[in-house]
Amino acid sequence: MDIIVCIKRVPETAEADLVIDGTKKAIETDDLVYSINEWDNYAVEAAIQLKEAEGGTITVISVGPEENNEVLRRALAMGADEAIRLTDPAFEGSDAYAMAKVLAAAIKDMPHDLILTGVQADDDGFGATGVALAQMLGLPYAALVTDIKKEGDTLTVHRELEGGLEEVDTLKLPALLTIQTGINEPRYVSIMGIRRVAKKEIAAKGAADLGLSENDVGLNGSMSQIEELFFPPVGEGAEIIEGTMDEKAETLVKILKERGGIA
Amino acid sequence: METMEQSLPERLDLYTCIQCGKCTGGCPVSIKSPLNIRRVVRESAVREDLHVFFSRLEIWDCTTCSTCAIRCPRGLRPVDAIIGLREMMVEEGRIEKTIIDALDGAYKYGNPWGRAKNKRAEWAQDLEIANALEMDPGQILYFVCCAASYDPRVQSVAKSLATVLRAGGVNFGILGNKEVCCGSEIRRMGEVGLFEMLMEENMKNFTKVNPQTIVTTSPHCMNALKNEYEGLGAEVLHYSQFVWRLIEEEKLSFSTEVPMKVTYHDPCYLGKQNGVFDEPRNVLKSIPGIEFTEFGRCRENSLCCEGGGGRMWMEGTNVGKRLSEIRVEDALEMGVEAIVTACPFCLLTLEDAVKTTGNEEKIKVIDLMELASMGLGVRPEVEGRR
Predict the structure, then answer these.
(1) What is the pairing mode between strands B130-131 and B172-174?
(2) Could you list the residue range(s) of the whole structural domain that residue A100 is in?
(3) Residue range B142-164: average pLDDT?
(4) Cβ proximity of B54 and B87 under 8 Å
(5) So what's the pLDDT on residue B252?
(6) CATH code of the domain in which A92 resides
(7) Structural domains in chain A (count)
């Protein structure tokens, strides 16, 4: 089974103090640490587990500058066979739709039985690239996948729905799945492992190589664009609990009980 | 393992083990854990496929205190077999989530708690400590490392040490946000490559600063810098050694009476592994008012607190009573008011044990530098842990 996994390099924001830059359309990224998008890490692990069970190949693809080789190499160290980087100044400003076009242009001529993406990306959070890509490639898809079983050319997958519901679907291969976090336990990638694949070539392809014009990608080829970024205004309703540590704990437990947070 | 030129037993000379069992006999966790270090050594030597160890959670029970290595009559290092097995697990990516998080944190942020890099020197912001990278060569570099930089409880140790160094007239600087984890615990969790990366990063700055002496907060860092960093020209001392030297050279003395009955808990990485037993005791005894009693199990026989070898991030099988609780109970029986120690991990595990045994009203855990600071009339501000 030939699997393609689309991965994104994103800044980690959980611990960072975010600053909106002068354009008001982006954040300052100088001090931020980058890594593979969390959902995509689960997707790579899912691909490796399928390969371990079924054989085949894994190709990882990422759109972005040379720094993206970092996440591609990490995926190679984890167990992927090949890596491709799609890069062109014209791709700047692409929304999820234009991004899907870039990925589709690269994938359409590659052999593939299964395409995996993360459900969404940690930075933009569109959650649309994967499903848009499936549409463009004419593939059946399932989003928010939390379990994968393969039998012949049929996949049985679980999807995580609202309110704790789980849906079970069957899809015929080739297909596309967007992978939810928690589907597996992604393995650790050691520094020595990354060093071992340091010399492996990562092919880079631009718009022209993919047969894309400037109007297909970037802002021109997008359906949406960012107008403004801002922090949510400070609202009301927050309650600061006062007192000694013990009093605070007691009040907190009381509130949680009253509002049904704990039994 | 394919990637290493020699197999694990060859590399560690495990075939020469005579199976006397002195290692297991001295192992502090063997009283409560399925971990049997003698058996691990034997199995590592005779098993064809070491993957059998991968499902054994007790491999993570080892605190790397190294009592086994001290007691081995053949001069072997059984503890290194544990670390070697962990290295294999790390290489195959088959390790627990909490370990992965610690390693990822050290890789991305330079500290195993994954705290922001630009907050590393926050503890020092009001203290006007020199930037070591702007000092002349041949000075004193204080290597703070992660626990003292980020843990609110241990920050008090760093602040106290700064007070003591100043009272001793020492010109010193820190690397601030340029410092990264020493890698000691990272190496013991089996991530050799990451240890080397962190070492290279610190070595770059050590070379720039070119200090005469590097003083560390933690015995773990002291051990790593002194015994494991390659090409480091500077003298490396734990703060207890450096401060005792200041006292001996009559550059520092304590004038404020600290009337307190205390005992001293030997950190394994300071005592057992580096033979530093007397300096911390000497510092302690030079503070007026201190009444000192030894633990029954002290010096080479000191009971490990279970904070080392990655145990701050991994519980292992976690069966039985914590050794730190035994330690606290022993101290209570001795009738002391405080356990003094000289290692961030010992400080945290012992203090946790005071809380879990419900003895907060009866006994305190104090770092040696906090006590020294009190001897200078400066009461450390000890914040609770997050």
Answers:
(1) parallel
(2) 2-205
(3) 97
(4) no
(5) 98
(6) 3.40.50.620
(7) 1
Q: How far is CA B83 from CA B185, B189, B194, in A?
A: 11, 7, 14
In Å, how far is A192's CA from the nearest CA of chain B? 5
d(CA A96, CA A6): 13
Residue A169 lies in a domain: yes
Interface list for A 74-113 with B (CB within 8 A)? 78
Contact by Cβ (8 Å): A3, A113: yes
Which site among A191, A194, A245, A248 would you substitute to test the B interface, given the most B Cβ atoms closer than 10 Å to its Cβ?
A191
Distance of alpha carbon A227 from alpha carbon B332, whole angstroms: 65
Overall pTM > 0.90: yes
In a domain, A233, yes or no: no
Q: Is the pLDDT of residue B385 over 90?
A: no
Spell out the domains of chain B, with CATH numbers in brackets. Answer: 8-91 (1.10.1060.10), 97-247 (3.40.50), 251-375 (3.40.50.10700)
CA–CA min distance A216, chain B (Å): 36
Looking at the complex, does the CB of residue A15 fall below 8 Å from at least one CB of chain B?
Answer: yes
Q: Are A191 and B116 within 8 A, CB to CB?
A: no
ipTM of the complex: 0.88
CB-CB contact of B357 with B328 (8 Å): yes
CA dihedral B256, B259, B263, B264 (to 10 degrees): -10
- Examine residue A231 and state whether it is found in any structural domain, yes or no: no
